[in-house]
Write a structure and sequence with these properties.
Blueprint: E1 5-6, H1 21-24, E2 28-34, E3 37-44, E4 50-55, E5 60-62, E6 80-82, E7 87-91, E8 98-102, E9 108-109, E10 117-125, E11 128-135, E12 144-150, E13 164-167, E14 172-179, E15 182-188, E16 199-206, E17 209-221, E18 226-228, E19 230-235, E20 240-245, E21 263-271, E22 274-275, E23 279-282, E24 300-302, E25 308-314, E26 316-323, E27 328-332, E28 338-346, E29 349-355, E30 362-367, E31 372-378, E32 392-398, E33 401-408, E34 415-416, E35 425-429, H2 443-449, E36 454-459, H3 468-471, H4 481-495, E37 504-509, H5 511-522, E38 528-532, H6 538-544, H7 552-556, H8 564-570, E39 583-588, H9 596-608, E40 613-618, H10 628-646
Parallel strand pairs: 1-34, 35-36, 35-37, 37-38, 38-39, 39-40
Antiparallel strand pairs: 2-3, 3-4, 4-5, 6-7, 7-8, 8-9, 10-11, 11-12, 12-13, 14-15, 15-16, 16-17, 17-18, 19-20, 20-21, 21-22, 21-23, 24-25, 25-26, 26-27, 28-29, 29-30, 30-31, 32-33, 33-36
Length: about 650
């Protein structure tokens, strides 16, 4: 047995360099079978973070400088779709127009050059191209959103009237799903977010437009005080529609067990819009679905033989094969346990994106008949190097109930800490806050753990993946429950003897950055903080953020002006005297979700209090960093900052200047 090479935690040499980080975490999106090939979308950090469309040979189908990225709902999604085995349509990031192209040809526009328009959720169905269009009508007015049909003959490139509005009338729309004279879609209105209350609607098409429609499921039932979130309609034939919803337990039939989790349902149509009652296809205490941050997300798919492949999540995820006729369900054993999305199916094969506890994120081909899975892109790592930490699920008691986490222990071959030394630990707070982590093998975590720094990834109350009740624990209590939960998790790790209580740091981005700042202001648990484009003042956020999240705070804190006192009291910038912990602030200049004004006000407050801090601003970056040089700088400076504040010397990175 090899002897342990003992060195101070945090000072271990690691083969994972800052320069390796841009390529270490793939950002993959929509994938499709194309003949005998595979095409998929992938962010390319070395090309300023553009989203390329690639093929299995590695060659670009959509070459630089084109970038397939939507801005609908700000987070986009559904930015390209396959038309046939040669042609595809995509949304160009720079102008948000829809273009048509084929591999090796120059793209041609299909929609007008109008800066008011953005497009997303592209769908090729019934021989036509469908999309969600967002029209910005003024700086202080709610955008208009419609489902549209885009002609392929380029008539819409110069004449906007050639792009046909199919249906509108809701604040938000998603999942245009036409079939045989009908179209299904998802709709919701302010102040709801799609995971709060969203409706599945089906309409009849006449001359390509919806003339009448009916609500099938979901929405807000004010009389009973019940909210239902519907997602992802898919036709399983001309008269059968599959979809996901999380109906309340009070709506359950006596012979069914419904758990207010996103479960798979179906409904059958008789004629026109006449339909039977929706029935569950698979009732399970787990989620087939998730927060609709990005358009086009898919958690299940009907195979050609009528069976259904579905993701079911309870903390981590499983793949299930459902036979609706017989009612039988079988789990497909794969190494994938997190962030699984079903991108495309052909016969009994499926293209998936996802990761697992012992495999990094990638694009995978699943052969359902052979029960085999192979990596198409990414998904591979050398575990024999023993430089990657494998997460251990842990649950800690919190003030309002259990707090679910994943702990990545310090790991690097035969290296170990000094006798009697406990490791520093970095507590990670995901964004959203309606987000979710699944303890996947992560180079982002291994970057720290391979240097002797533990990482604790926390699914605080408000996270998805554990059902509506866990998610709604945060309602009206953002900045309170999340802070209590991350503090309880960190202290629970200390109680287990796995962390040095004097060297606990906390890091988060966006909504996670808000929790970081609140935790530093309202607890004495943490000795250092890292905020990536974090929220520092709720009223500033409300005044400056984009339309998709304009009413998000109604549920997380309370409606204005009734709850204004809470907005003021909870904001860290309201009490700058409480911000005494060293802080690293990272911010993009083009962030429409959390504008730089928030980070700059925070920087000024820290400077006024003489609190050690650094503010790093990255030109051209938006909400979520994509450029290689930015990602490298962030990880290098985060490590240097932690070493300087927590008292260890990480090799291979330059010191950061603290003001």
């Amino acid at each position: 047995m090899a002897s342990i090479d003992r060195r101070a935690f945090g000072s271990w040499p690691s083969s994972i360099r800052p320069e390796d980080m841009p390529a270490g975490s793939l950002r993959l999106d929509l994938a499709r079978f194309v003949g005998d090939d595979y095409w998929w979308a992938e962010s390319v950090p070395s090309q300023k973070g553009r989203t390329a469309i690639l093929r299995s040979s590695g060659d670009p189908v959509l070459p630089a400088p084109w970038s397939a990225r939507s801005r609908v709902h700000e987070y986009g999604g559904g930015a390209w779709t396959l038309l046939d085995d040669e042609r595809f349509a995509f949304v160009e990031q720079s102008d948000q127009r829809v273009y048509i192209s084929s591999a090796g040809s120059d793209p041609a526009p299909l929609t007008p050059a109008d800066p008011r328009f953005a497009h997303g959720d592209l769908v090729w169905a019934e021989g036509e191209l469908w999309a969600v269009r967002e029209t910005h009508v003024g700086p202080h007015e709610t955008p208009i959103r419609e489902i549209v049909r885009i002609p392929l003959d380029a008539s819409g490139a110069n004449d906007g009237s050639a792009v046909v509005s199919v249906v509108s009338g809701s604040d938000f729309l998603a999942y245009p799903t036409p079939r045989a004279g009908r179209i299904a879609w998802i709709a919701w209105d302010h102040p709801d977010m799609p995971w709060d209350a969203s409706e599945l609607r089906v309409g009849t098409l006449e001359d390509g437009r919806v003339r009448e429609w009916t609500r099938i499921a979901g929405g807000r039932e004010a009389s009973r005080g019940e909210n239902v979130s519907a997602l992802q309609p898919e036709w399983a034939g001309e008269d059968e529609l599959l979809f996901v919803q999380d109906p309340p337990t009070t709506a359950a039939r006596a012979d069914r067990t419904w758990t207010q989790r996103w479960n798979l349902f179906h409904v059958r149509f008789d004629d026109g819009l006449a339909h039977a009652a929706a029935e569950p296809v698979y009732a399970v205490d787990g989620d087939t679905g998730g927060p609709l941050w990005s358009l086009g997300a898919r958690w299940y798919a009907a195979l050609d033989d009528g069976n259904v492949l579905a993701v079911v999540t309870e903390g981590r995820s499983r793949l299930m094969l459902i036979e609706p006729v017989s009612g039988s369900v079988a789990e497909l054993e794969t190494p994938l346990t997190g962030d699984i999305h079903i991108q495309a199916v052909r016969g009994r094969r499926a293209l998936l994106t996802g990761a697992g506890a012992e495999v990094p994120g990638g694009l995978w081909e699943l052969d359902v008949s052979a029960r085999s899975l192979r990596a198409v892109r990414g998904g591979e790592v050398d575990l024999t190097s023993r430089v990657h930490s494998v997460a251990v699920p842990m649950t800690f008691p919190g003030p309002l109930g259990p707090v679910h986490t994943f702990f990545y222990p310090p790991t690097n071959g035969a290296l170990g800490g000094l006798d009697g030394e406990l490791p520093p630990v970095l507590v990670l707070v995901h964004g959203g806050p309606t987000g979710h982590v699944t303890g996947d093998l992560s180079q982002n975590s291994s970057y720290f753990t391979s240097r002797g720094i533990g990482v604790l990834d926390v699914n605080y109350g408000g996270s998805s993946g554990y059902g509506r009740a866990y998610r709604e624990r945060l309602n009206g209590a953002w900045g309170l429950v999340d802070v209590q939960d991350v503090a309880a998790a960190a202290q629970g790790l200390v109680a287990k003897g796995l962390a040095d209580p004097k060297r606990l740091a906390i890091k988060g981005g966006s909504a996670g950055g808000w929790t970081v700042l609140c935790a530093l202001a309202d607890t004495d648990v943490f000795s250092a903080g890292i905020s990536r484009y974090g929220v520092a003042d709720l009223r500033m956020l409300l005044a400056e953020t984009h339309d998709f999240e304009a009413r998000y705070l109604d549920g997380l804190v309370g409606p204005m002006p009734e709850a204004e006192a809470d907005y003021i009291e909870r904001s860290p910038l309201t009490h700058p005297e409480k911000l005494r912990t060293p802080l690293l602030i990272l911010q993009g200049t083009e962030d429409p979700v959390v504008p730089p004004s928030q980070s700059e006000a925070l920087r000024d407050a820290l400077a006024a209090n003489s609190v050690p801090h650094a503010y790093l601003k990255f030109e051209g970056e938006s909400h979520g960093f994509r450029r290689a040089e930015t990602i490298i700088a962030c990880f290098a400076n985060e490590l240097a900052f932690l070493g300087q504040v927590l008292g260890f010397e990480p090799p291979g990175v330059a010191a950061i200047e603290l003001s």
